[in-house]
Design brief:
This protein has 321 residues and is mainly alpha-helical. The chain is built from 17 helices and no strands.
């Protein structure tokens, strides 16, 4: 991905070369508008997060103002490049060159398909790669809003909805690259103990504690999120604890995704009120303390093995100023 990013940035130079050549060859200022159109299309292809993503968004005044600002900024950029080219042509006394006007336009336009073949902005963003800080900020705002909108249908599910229906809805909603954002949004929405959402909580605990979710670490801290969702419900904790014990034993390298041992012990010492029989509550306390010890041991073992490894080069930066 880093190699593709470097290639994209190199090919993007073609975009700026076109108006420079046009200005250098003494073409008229009317070409500025053609280059501006190419620059705007390039932005739409390579920076989709900076543009409205749905027809409904395009109907808002805010979207039109943002789009107008983008177009005007590209018009200014092209005018500057064109002016620099004209200035260099005047200094070199080049005059008007007998060149097909389509040539500099084609050079700039060529950057669009070449960059698109190498770079998918949404795929790169799902892996944490951005062309620059501006793209990262735009994606973060857009992704957070999209995640919040995506979980609304789940929160609207009735408490008595069949488990099968809720399980399918949760799996569909979280089967996306932005699953971590959506799970975090759900965890925050369910943090209010006055909100029941019993079926949804149960489905989320099962989903977040599936081996295929935990093992590859595709959703950071999924086990911690599942614990947050189950923390006020003893029935959910009884589902969570044995699954967590099995997972920490099978995948100790994923210990950082689990809740901190201190939190597990604190919950064990302060179980919420419940009509669960005393002996089952005692078993749950013992299970939480055993899980705390297992997480603690796994984290200690993982830290020791990491410290024993030779130092590696730091990951290359993926953003430009």
């Amino acid at each position: 991905m880093l190699t593709r990013m470097r290639l994209v940035k190199g090919i993007a130079a073609l975009l700026y070369v076109g108006p420079l050549i046009a200005g250098l060859c003494g073409f008229g200022w009317s070409m500025v508008f053609s280059f501006t159109a190419i620059f705007v299309v390039w932005l739409m292809v390579l920076r989709p997060e900076q543009w409205p993503s749905t027809p409904a968004e395009w109907l808002t005044a805010q979207a039109w103002l943002a789009a107008l600002a983008q177009v005007l900024s590209q018009l200014l950029l092209v005018s500057i490049l064109f002016g620099i080219g004209r200035g260099l042509g005047g200094l070199a006394d080049i005059g008007t060159v007998a060149l097909d006007p389509l040539l500099p336009l084609s050079i700039s336009f060529l950057a669009i398909p070449l960059c698109r073949m190498l770079w998918d902005a949404r795929e790169a963003a799902s892996q944490g790669y951005f062309l620059d800080d501006e793209a990262e900020a735009a994606h973060s705002d857009s992704a957070a809003g999209t995640a919040a909108a995506a979980i609304i249908p789940l929160l609207n599910l009735p408490d008595n909805a069949p488990d099968e229906t809720v399980t399918v809805a949760v799996a569909d909603a979280l089967d996306v690259p932005a699953a971590e954002l959506r799970l975090n949004a759900l965890t925050a929405a369910l943090s209010n103990p006055n909100r029941s959402h019993a079926a949804l909580r149960r489905a989320l605990v099962f989903w977040a504690t599936e081996p295929e979710i935990v093992a590859p670490g595709q959703v950071a801290e999924s086990m911690a999120s599942a614990f947050d969702i189950a923390n006020t419900n003893l029935d959910l904790l009884r589902i969570y604890v044995p699954r967590a014990m099995a997972l920490i034993s099978a995948f100790p390298t994923r210990a950082d995704d689990f809740p901190a041992p201190e939190r597990l012990r604190l919950t064990a010492d302060n179980l919420p009120q419940s009509d669960l029989p005393d002996h089952l509550q005692a078993d749950l306390r013992d299970g939480l303390r055993a899980l705390a010890r297992s997480v603690e041991a796994a984290r200690g073992s993982h830290s020791a093995s990491t410290a024993a490894e030779p130092p590696r080069h730091a990951k290359a930066a993926v953003r430009t100023a």
